Fold this sequence. Notes:
Blueprint: H1 3-44, H2 58-111, H3 113-117, H4 127-160, H5 162-168, H6 184-191, H7 212-225, H8 231-244
Amino acid sequence: xxxxxxxxxxxxxxxxxxxxxxxxxxxxxxxxxxxxxxxxxxxxxxxxxxxxxxxxxxxxxxxxxxxxxxxxxxxxxxxxxxxxxxxxxxxxxxxxxxxxxxxxxxxxxxxxxxxxxxxxxxxxxxxxxxxxxxxxxxxxxxxxxxxxxxxxxxxxxxxxxxxxxxxxxxxxxxxxxxxxxxxxxxxxxxxxxxxxxxxxxxxxxxxxxxxxxxxxxxxxxxxxxxxxxxxxxxxxxxxxxxxxxxxxx
Length: 249
């Protein structure tokens, strides 16, 4: 295999990696719409939403609640489907990362360590330097997929435990939307553990039921901001790929 072939394989791997990231970003928007609608339906099921003047119409209330529950269940399924698609994109990124690591080993065996660690593949960077960038970005997505899984689990748990929540809740209904001023830093400081390497959320299911609406908004903000995906790191990687590799095609 020639050096030019190795270079083309490097570009191909990074192209596929970037394509998976783009699809991920599109799915974030799809999931936000589904999750936002689900939270609003859940709030309509909360205690205090049904007008006291209509409490005597038990059958009407039961039909209303049954309709809402079916809608909430369908939305939960849609949101889980979106997460499954997102997981598929994560798997593609993982595959590309593994393939690049294997390609480095193959290049070293074929042409020696100098080709892998000293000779530029793109404009100026070696395979090792490209690998460092790729592994760093993939690490962010590894943390984020775990966080997204917990957001999904928390929303589904809200759906499944709604009857219990209505008994304990002292709050009313009302819609919930993601605050336009929410930032990744604010969401991260609210939800995440102090260790950046820890992908698990602490406290989602420990939020008191009476703060049902607040919890919903926190979950929506976390999904919208994708706080583990550090903007500066991703922008640096995008510029790196364009300048070092894609720009040379």
